[in-house]
Amino acid sequence: MTKRVLPIGAAGGIAFTLAATQATTDWLVLSRLAVCGTALAAAAAVDLAEHRIPNRVVLPAATICAALTLAEPPRLAPLSSGLALVALLLVLSLARPAALGMGDVKLALLIAVGFDGHAPGALLLGLTFAALAGVVLLVVCGREAWRRALPLAPFFTVGALAALWL
């Protein structure tokens, strides 16, 4: 799986950077989104294959994105709204670990520090896409769908990419 994660991560970084160039030319923002996109794509590939989100991908990327966010002029309002959603997901994860894993919460944290003002939209879009996939799964598989676990990283990744276009 490791051989496939590297090119998928690189493709994610390129896709996020290209999408971001539509809105900005600020090199700090583009760098932050490239790191975030690379990590999201790599995490999505691992989550699809192994149903886990690797800390060794997400945590360093979140740290780099946080440092790049702090290197910009302070804009706490956009960051705080993303972090508020992460806190809500953390509470949900602690209350219902089977519904939302801690890896998903760490991935949401990566989006919150990587996407600045787009984080709430990215997270909500990702959760909406996952909910729609769950509904389709229920329609197709019936009650059996309740026993299946959906990997959320691909939905968060698509939601984040879509948020860049909005």
Commentary on this structure:
- By secondary structure, the chain is mainly alpha-helical.
- It has one domain.
- The chain contains 7 helices and no strands.
- α2 packs antiparallel against α5.
- The longest helix has 24 residues.
- It starts with a helix and ends with a helix.
Would you tell me the structural class of the helices and strands?
Answer: mainly alpha
The biggest sheet, with number of strands, parallel, antiparallel or mixed sense and barrel status, is: none
What would you report as the Rg, rounded to the nearest angstrom? 15 Å
Low-confidence stretches: none
Tell me how many strands there are. Answer: 0
Alpha-carbon distance between the two ends: 32 Å
Shape summary = globular
* Helix amount: over 70%
Counting structural domains, the number is 1
Number of helices: 7
Q: Spell out the helices and strands N to C.
A: HHHHHHH
* Average of pLDDT: 86
- Beta-strand proportion: under 5%
